[in-house]
Amino acid sequence: MSIPDQEYAKVIENLKIKGNSFVEQELDIQEGQALNFEEYIQKPRFAKIKNKKYVPVWNRKDKYEPLTEFQHVDRGHFADPSFKSLLSKKAGTQDYIDGVQVRNLTPKFGTEINGVQLSALDDAGKDELALYVAQRGVVVFRNQDLKDKRIEQVEALSNYFGRPHIHPTSPTVVGHPEVFLVYHENSPESAVSGIASRSTSTLTWHSDVSYEKQPAGTTFLAYLQGPSVGGDTLYADTQEAYERLSPEFCKRLEGLEATHSGVEQVNGALARGGVVRRAPTVSTHPVVRTHPVTKRHSIYVNPGFTRAIVGYKKEESDALLKFLYDHITKSGDLQIRASWEEGTIVVWDNRRAVHTATYDFDDVLTRHAFRITPQAEKPSEK
Ligand SMILES: O=C(O)CCC(=O)C(=O)O
Ligand SMILES: [Fe+2]
Questions:
Q1: Region 340-354 average pLDDT
Q2: Which end of the chain is more exposed for a tag (fewer CB within 10 A), N or C?
Q3: Does residue 371 line the site of ligand 1, with CB under 6 A?
Q4: From atom 4 of ligand 1, which residue's Cα is the shortest distance away?
Q5: From the CA of 149, how far away is ligand 2's center (Å)?
Q6: What is the distance in A from the centroid of ligand 2 to the CA of 208?
Q7: 308: β partners
Q8: Number of folded domains in the chain?
Q9: Domain with 131 in it: what CATH number?
Q10: Nearest atom (ligand 1) to Cα of 357
């Protein structure tokens, strides 16, 4: 169900009334004559940003129609499971060539790789990446040069794995709305102290854009700068979480569906005078989904966007979701934490891994990363 047009018009009207409390007028990059990106990136607000190509923009003029359905064929289907293009195994052996280091972070979930350059992968390597990430859930690649390449190359990578998603509310890169930015700066709105004053924890577990009809699949987050320590991203394995449930409990979940909502995210953007590019969506997805390539099941609910179990009374829905969230987010033995360095790219499969940023660092810092978010198939239980 998407929000009807009249509702959307009200939302936009509200935005105009609220004005620009957080995103000042000068941050509106207009098309054509008003665009002067050179001046914009020199603003004192952005002085601490190292990679000016990725300076955040919030363009109020960007408006998009509701997303349409498309057919997704996962690249993992085409992969050579020996991973010889991705990991450059020596012909006929299980050994990696010199310089490629592969270290599993836990037995079943998460791997760190050094010595593979994602920007240089050929199509066979990219297909293997899709499969490898599906099999490991999260893969941390160090020393990546993608941030120094043309943004067109970043977009092409996104396009390869699915349909690049344009986020309804997050900052983007001028001229490249498919590039999603994580941007934390020392402003009252984003300060860690602000978050900490509202909540005892800064964690916000979610699977990216699960409110879309076809949510994210193989997803990349590339780090540009941030604290020397802290700001790790936590990931939890919802496939392992499913496999730990009793057969009786799995039967209870069979056939259940849940609603996922993007409305609150849009309302949050409106409340701070932010950008809304598209009317928010609410989708219904199975509680257990099957990965199209690995055929493994995972629990597809998350505290960030899931709202209710379809057909359950409120108390029943709240109780079941609370159990599933606790099981996933409090089981440290199915989680990893990814630490970041300039040039780290983490690739994860949003069908399997839920994640959260951590705001445990000094709030005077700029934390800056870009994400590409290819949309995948409509979640399906079978
Ligand atoms: O900032 C982070 O650590 C993660 C942000 C996030 O949730 C994302 O990029 O999908
Ligand atoms: Fe996320």
A1: 98
A2: C
A3: yes
A4: 357
A5: 23
A6: 5
A7: 259
A8: 1
A9: 3.60.130.10
A10: 3
